[in-house]
Design brief:
Layout (H helix, E strand, L loop, with lengths): L7 H6 L14 H10 L14 H23 L5 H11 L5 E6 L5 E6 L4 H17 L1 H4 L2 E3 L8 E3 L12 H20 L3
Antiparallel strand pairs: 1-2, 3-4
């Protein structure tokens, strides 16, 4: 899974925006990995049940956030239904964080009161609202220029000249393709 978009809501959108269009959150286990990888659930926090209802709820939020972000990039007005659904989720209480001691006596993060789907959805939806209402952040939104890639990210690079969602993925593909074109063009015909 990819966690280099600059915002957790964009990382969620990226779970389907892969160049091949593959679904990265296929089941509860995949969602559990994403929740931990995105930092929404600390590593030590047990997640008892992540069922199909959770998966569908996060996929629905992903569709709505993706719609709003792409509308912003296109300079179009937002889909009113998507905006209402994201706002409704963002209004919910996010998960509470607690500091607890680990076995060595160090303070570590845990979620207070357990892991609840609605609270995690609220955290991602709130991140989307913060992104879409902050002019400075909105100005950093970019679409990957990689061939066939639909990922979006925040361009926080120096000079704001980042072209690809990932230098290792799409950037490398582009460099290889450019090299092949130069080699083919240099061959005697």
């Amino acid at each position: 899974m990819w966690f280099d978009s600059g915002r957790v809501c964009l990382d969620l959108v990226a779970t389907f925006a892969a160049p091949a269009g593959a679904e990265e959150i296929q089941d509860g286990d995949d969602l559990r990995l994403w929740l931990t990888g995105a930092g929404l659930v600390p590593d030590r926090t047990p997640i008892a049940r992540v069922g199909p209802d959770w998966v569908e709820a996060f996929r629905a939020l992903r569709r709505d956030v993706g719609s709003l972000v792409r509308a912003e990039l296109a300079g179009a007005g937002p889909d009113e239904g998507a905006l209402a659904r994201v706002n409704a989720l963002a209004a919910g209480p996010p998960p509470g964080l607690c500091a607890v001691q680990d076995q060595e006596g160090h303070l570590v993060r845990e979620l207070c009161g357990g892991v609840e789907c609605g609270a995690l959805l609220a955290a991602v939806a709130r991140d989307a609202v913060e992104l879409l209402t902050d002019p400075g952040e909105r100005d950093l939104l970019r679409s990957c220029e990689g061939d066939g890639c639909t990922r979006v990210y925040l361009d926080t690079s120096r000079g704001h000249r980042r072209r690809w969602c990932s230098s290792e993925l799409c950037g490398n593909r582009e460099r290889v393709a450019r090299h092949r074109r130069r080699v083919l063009a240099a061959r005697p015909g």
